[in-house]
Design brief:
With about 100 residues, the chain is of the alpha+beta class. The chain has a single domain, classed as FAD/NAD-linked reductase, C-terminal dimerisation domain (Enolase-like, domain 1), CATH 3.30.390.30. The protein has four helices and three strands; from the N terminus they run E-H-E-E-H-H-H. The chain has a three-stranded antiparallel β-sheet. The termini are far apart. The relative contact order is 0.23.
Length: about 100
């Protein structure tokens, strides 16, 4: 089913205003998506605030969502969910923040 190498991207928490406000800008969100179909194959969240971000990743995996669809969902600012959006955008090299 997956013939090409998956695309991977990592977004650091230090780029998120909400994480900076919590005083916890350590950690990252990594998204792995199929290079051909863009389906999200896996999401790694390493952060003390991961429990607040895991819902969107679980939804993407449960419904076999392409990374572009997740990136297009409205993400309020400043929130921790922005890390997921940034990682999904970065899969296609379209991230807004570094």
């Amino acid at each position: 089913m997956y013939r090409r190498h998956p695309r991977r991207t990592t977004r650091l928490a230090r780029c998120l205003h909400r994480a900076l406000g919590h005083g916890d800008a350590q950690g990252f969100v990594k998204v792995v998506a199929d290079a051909q179909s863009d389906l999200v194959l896996g999401v790694h969240i390493v952060s003390s605030l991961a429990s607040e971000m895991i819902g969107e990743a679980a939804m993407a995996l449960e419904f076999s969502a392409p990374s572009e669809d997740i990136a297009r969902i409205c993400h309020a600012h400043p929130t921790l969910y922005e890390a997921t959006r940034e990682a999904e955008l970065a899969v296609d090299k379209r991230a807004l923040n570094l």
